[in-house]
Known about the structure:
The chain contains 26 helices and 18 strands. By secondary structure, the chain is α/β, with parallel strands linked by helices.
Amino acid sequence: MDREGDGWAVRILTLKLKKNCFDHVCLWFLSILTDLDDGIDYRTVIKENIFTMWYKTSLHGEFATLNCVITPKDQNLLQHIFDEDIQTSEAPQTVVLQGAAGIGKTTLLKKAVLEWADGNLYQQFTHVFYLNGKEISQVKEKSFAQLISKHWPSSEGPIEQGQVEKGGRVEETCKTSTALFTYYICSLFPRIPVGCVTLPNETLLRSLCKAAVEGIWTMKHVLYQQNLRKHELTREDILLFLDAKVLQQDTEYENCYMFTHLHVQEFFAALFYLLRENLEEQDYPSEPFENLYLLLESNHIHDPHLEQMKCFLFGLLNKDRVRQLEETFNLTISMEVREELLACLEGLEKDDSSLSQLRFQDLLHCIYETQDQEFITQALMYFQKIIVRVDEEPQLRIYSFCLKHCHTLKTMRLTARADLKNMLDTAEMCLEGAAVQVIHYWQDLFSVLHTNESLIEMDLYESRLDESLMKILNEELSHPKCKLQKLIFRSVDFLNGCQDFTFLASNKKVTHLDLKETDLGVNGLKTLCEALKCKGCKLRVLRLASCDLNVARCQKLSNALQTNRSLVFLNLSLNNLSNDGVKSLCEVLENPNSSLERLALMSCVLTSKACGDLASVLVNNSNLWSLDLGHNILDDAGLNILCDALRNPNCHVQRLG
């Protein structure tokens, strides 16, 4: 919108939560070309308004001034939001900040106001107006001039900034977010003034929880009068929760309320499922938010507004959390929801579409909140295949804790992208003993290789493995109780040449090794060849497609196969072996004692010169029944040589591709 002809130059910065959702705020940046005032008084007033909002909405023990701190990341974002578009050379008239509720969009807009008022940003505008959705939704009709007029400088002096109540330092004693918020919520109610009703009864608490859960599902975080009436919450009821600092009243509109923090609302929303009335008489839940299966089907990408509530729900299954709430509110909490959740998890396992990496990782985050080994074992007993990805330390901590209790697991696909060095470089891990802790997490995670006798396949696709992880993995794969049969290292990045396959020499269970698109390196090829020479190696399938093998490496591999009597399938496709490399391989495979049954040499830069050696293998190796030579330039002469070999009565090849 550009109204410079009428004396206005306007830019709008707004945030968007969801269509038809009015719980949003908007900044209007105006350059008023008429000389109304010097703007200094207005800057003072708008700063005081922002500070007042923060002081009134700060959580108990929270320093409101912390909200004012602008990080370099925030500064960089705000500096460039009105930059000219490279293609159109025009500055945007409207900028929308879009994201999940509670991640800091509103706070960023308030910081933008303060930066303007302090003279740091947007000085091309003489005035900035902060408007919020609650204000607009409360009026039937009002002009823009009326909306902004209340912010205009008055003759009153600056408002004194209040003091923030200072609490003690929070100790890091809670392992989960549910534990932390349970302690916090329970600490609020003893602070209620003596003149008030001491505690909400179960009916009142259930009403608040229902209002909370409905708001989370619909992404509406403001309680208007109609919401209060719907959930039978009276003015006296609201006062109780206001005094407890569970709810807060809007600073300007007395009929608008909200929870003191989004996580507080999410906590009470989760508590709804433990306090809800018996649904046994209903054929199905009357409201979508009552359907636990729908909640478990959600994921943090498509339904980010449900994720923390779901974590709190699982966390509230912990017996210690239940005891805290029962003692605080003087009630008895039924744990029927525990069995309901387990039944839903069994249903998820039967629905193949629900076993995606996304949903399973969300599930592990949730069940970790319980800190209940018995429940975790029951919850994971329905899953025989999992797909997870480790990008940072919190994920590693969660997966290592949960997966060692998954005793029915048969197939595990783990993409480990966060090596030890990268984890320790993060700010959260720059602590004494962090390296030892991270290594312990990896040991716990890989311990499933010997503690879980059902696990027969592990896929480390696109993992990033360093020396520490490779050492742990080797130790677990060499463990006498390891029952793994199939190991996949496709597209794995081995750092600093840490490839090590010595476990193959002693592990008699691993029969399938897939290293496609992985650079073996010097040490990898050396340890692999040494293992192939050992009698203890029982490898039957070896996939080395696109492993950067050349003539020299192929010769080393061929030497290792001279005494090997277990390998039946070898895939060397997509390697630059050339005729000389295949010649050394054929010298080994034409031995009648060779056990190889299938050989794949697709796209190995072969010509007709290699066909004579290959024909010798076809005639002399009675075990070989499949040979794949696709995408090589063999021409007619080479094909004729192979056809002659196929006609030989000693040739047992059934498939030539």
